[in-house]
Design goal:
By secondary structure, this protein is of the alpha/beta class. It folds into four domains: 150 residues, 5'-nuclease (Rossmann fold), CATH 3.40.50.1010; 81 residues, no CATH class; 101 residues, no CATH class; 327 residues, Sec63 N-terminal domain-like fold. Helices cover 47% and strands 8% of the residues. The strands form five sheets. Strands 4-3-2-5 form a four-stranded parallel beta sheet, sandwiched between helices. The protein has a three-stranded antiparallel beta sheet with strand order 1-7-6. A hairpin with a 4-residue loop joins β8 and β9. The longest helix is centred in the last third of the chain and has 29 residues. The radius of gyration is 27 Å and the shape is globular.
Length: 738
């Protein structure tokens, strides 16, 4: 490893592995982030500070994000994570906060898919160059470096495997230094060739291949026997080529397992597809020795990487208009949910299965524009709890899969024939006295037109797909209406408003997306005051948490319902770590919120992609911040986004609501005490009032729905909970406000 002064990087364009960079930001390492709902408080402030440092030192970053990447071959450490999570909750129950934080830090990944998605759009909105690689970010960075598009590469040392000559692995803006590794120095130090280096790395183990079992034996360890070190891998690769070592395994099964992994890893290093800048085509990197012809791509390459996608879909991916999940499912025939929630509940697993219909609809919106193979694609759903044969199974091989394997297919619906003109949108914006196209605008426009038999609803059920004028507001209105249709707030049969759509149109604009999420949770039966059940009956929740069990009394049920519902409301938080408690029930609830919101976001992406795949020129209508979910400074309930982002809320509002409901002190000391208990909260009293308004509006919705649909039990529970809320509001003299 070498160290250099930061001024050596001045004036250069730096290719940045975005996920590696995010992992390097110490301020984002908030152990409670996952328990709060997955996004650290102050996230955008911390990122902006780092961006300012790039600017200060004259470094121009080009952020490269991961695209379609095959999942790791082996699910390791799952049981260890379970134990760490259980320990974390036990420590928290005993008020041993720092021990709990350590366990949470080990067992959770704050840099998850949702987090990366929001950062991508935040960076684009701020005007930074962002690129979503078609496949691996590392391979794409290697190509950019080779072509001279970037002068340095900032990422993990593993980039050396792709043939990158030098990699910056750490930048210390405070000390004005950077650390880097150089491929030539590494090869010289160990006196090995580049091919031997790649083989040694594979023997040591990667996420795609297991560590060579004999490496842990003292026989191969010239320095410290009994404990693995990388020198041992170098030592044995010098004795004989990798192929020789593949002959020596204790069992045939173990041999097959390892050899498969090594083959896959070697192919990914040599052949990972990238966007080639010379001819703008996606094809393998071909990272062989300089001057030698690129290695041949194996005939069964698609088993690892999936089918090649149409250019138009790659184009949307490269620009970050669609994230990699939907294209990956269509290419690979797999939909993987590998992240285990912090609290694994029966409700979480049921909801994940129930969301299959929305996933099929999202896949259908894209597949309708692709060739027939994608339209009929059978996609195997894999979740962290599935047995090994399913997790390792392949789509199209159903005969060898267990009976409980879940297969979904793109659902290509007829859909309504929306035809949105620029003039009609402008007229309606003027009629409503607003300048923003959102759910509120679209629901009220639809209701008005339906009542007056206006042009918006004319010929809705006729044959033909949705369309709009080449105008940003017309495009936004079309996508919103398509989403409302797929969520059944507008009926796809006759184009009329459903009961849910009718009640939602009366919700205030700033609460509308939150209310839509709550109604969706109600639709799936996961909005209630009932305690959650453990996913595995033989593995109950940690005893020390003292989590309530069925049946529960009115007070407990009301407390759970009030805190869950109001936890959907975002709080204004300072740019610092969450330094108050987290709550077991709310962590469980927010694992449900996370997967629902992710699915709704995918439905938005698919609706937009469905329009753009018909005419890619419409891409130019999108502003850089069209999906930017960063809260505005002047109003944290507003964002620059043009389309619904379904930003993850943190559970903080629910935690503060519980504190409010359980507070026994006087009204005079409440404001002081709440600020002292939650120093990270900017304006807890104001945010409480917003949460109360949200509760009231949702109550109105549920009350109206209960008169026409089956929601009587939830309506009754909300009425009972309201009495408890009103009593405490009166006692602490905190009205709902304006």
């Amino acid at each position: 490893m070498h160290q250099g002064k930061l001024d050596r990087l001045k004036g250069i364009r730096d290719g940045v592995d975005a996920v590696f960079w995010l992992r390097s930001l110490q301020a984002l390492k908030d152990p409670f982030a996952d328990a709060l709902g997955g996004i650290p408080p102050g996230i955008f402030g911390f990122v902006d500070k780092e961006l300012e440092s790039f600017k200060k030192y004259g470094i121009t970053p080009l952020f490269v994000f991961q695209g379609v990447a095959p999942g790791p071959q082996h699910s390791m450490f799952v049981s260890r994570m379970d134990q760490q999570m259980e320990l974390a909750w036990q420590y928290l129950a005993k008020n041993q906060k720092s021990e709990a934080q350590k366990c949470f830090a080990i067992s959770t990944s704050r840099i998850n898919g949702d987090f990366v998605y929001f950062i991508f759009h935040h960076l684009k909105h701020k005007g930074y160059e962002c690129f979503q690689a078609p496949y691996f970010a590392g391979a794409q960075l290697a190509h950019f470096a080779e072509q001279g598009v970037v002068q340095t590469v900032f990422g993990p040392p593993g980039l050396l495997l792709y043939g990158v000559q030098g990699v910056v692995i750490h930048i210390d803006f405070q000390r004005t230094t950077f650390d880097w590794v150089d491929l030539e120095s590494v090869l010289q130090k160990w006196s090995i060739s580049r091919d031997q280096f790649v083989d040694a790395c594979m023997l040591a183990g990667t996420e795609y291949c297991l560590t060579y079992p004999y490496l842990n034996l003292g026989h191969f360890q010239p320095q410290s026997s009994g404990r693995f070190n990388f020198d041992a891998a170098v030592y044995i690769i010098k004795q004989a080529p990798l192929i020789n070592w593949m002959q020596t395994f204790p069992t045939e099964d173990m041999k097959n397992d390892h050899v498969d992994g090594y083959c896959i890893c070697k192919v990914l290093v040599q052949n990972s597809p990238v966007l080639h800048l010379t001819d703008h085509v996606i094809r393998p990197l071909g990272a062989g020795s300089p001057g030698s012809p690129p290695p041949q791509v194996p005939h069964d390459f698609s088993i690892i990487m999936g089918e090649k996608l149409p250019k138009s879909l790659y184009y949307l991916m490269l620009n970050g208009i669609i994230s990699h999940k939907l294209p990956q499912a269509l290419a690979k025939g797999e939909w993987t949910d590998k992240s285990q929630p912090l609290v694994d509940t029966r409700e979480f697993r049921d909801l994940l299965v129930d969301l299959s219909d929305y996933r099929s609809a999202a896949l259908g919106l894209i597949a309708r524009h692709l060739h027939v193979g994608f339209k009929k694609k059978r996609i195997l759903c894999k979740a962290f709890w599935d047995p090994h044969p399913i997790r390792q199974g392949l789509s199209g091989n159903e005969d060898n899969l267990p009976q409980e394997a879940r297969i979904i297919q793109p659902e290509i619906r007829k859909g309504l024939r929306w035809n949105i003109s620029k003039e009609a949108v402008e007229a309606e914006l003027a009629r409503q006295g607003t300048d923003k196209v959102d759910f509120h605008f679209c629901l009220n426009w639809h209701a008005h037109e339906f009542n007056t038999d206006g042009p918006l609803v004319k010929d809705l059920t006729e044959a033909g797909g949705p369309s709009c004028s080449p105008n940003n507001n017309a495009l936004a209105a079309l996508v919103h209406l398509m989403v409302l249709e797929h969520l059944e707030l507008i009926s796809s049969e006759d184009g009329g408003m459903t009961v849910l759509g009718d009640v939602l149109k009366g919700t205030p604009r700033n609460l509308q997306e939150l209310c839509l999420v709550a109604l969706e949770m109600m639709k799936f039966g996961v909005l209630s005051g009932e305690p959650f059940d453990p996913a595995q009956p033989d593995r109950p929740f940690p005893e020390q948490v003292n989590y309530p069990k069925q049946p529960v009394g009115l007070q407990t049920k009301s407390l759970l319902l009030l805190s869950r519902v109001m936890s959907l409301v975002p709080m204004k938080l300072k740019n610092e770590m969450w330094n108050a408690n987290v709550h077991f029930d709310l962590a469980a609830f927010h694992s449900l919120v996370r997967i629902l919101k992710r699915t709704l976001r995918q439905l938005v992406e698919a609706s937009l992609a469905s329009v753009l795949l018909k005419d890619l020129k419409y891409v130019k209508l999108l502003s850089p911040g069209f999906m930017c979910a960063s809260p505005k400074k002047e109003d944290h309930m507003q964002t620059p986004a043009v389309l619904p982002t379904f930003m993850l809320p943190r559970a903080s509002m629910g935690i503060v609501v519980r504190y409010f409901l359980e507070y026994t002190g006087s009204a005079a000391s409440f404001a002081r005490d709440i600020q002292a208990t939650f120093p990270c909260c900017h304006q807890p009293i104001e945010d409480l009032k917003t949460a109360f308004r949200f509760w009231e509006d949702l109550r109105r919705c549920v009350d109206a729905i209960a008169q026409q649909c089956d929601a009587e039990e939830l309506n009754e529970d909300m009425k009972n909970a309201s009495e408890i809320l009103y009593d405490q509001q009166a006692r602490l003299q905190i009205p709902i406000g304006d």
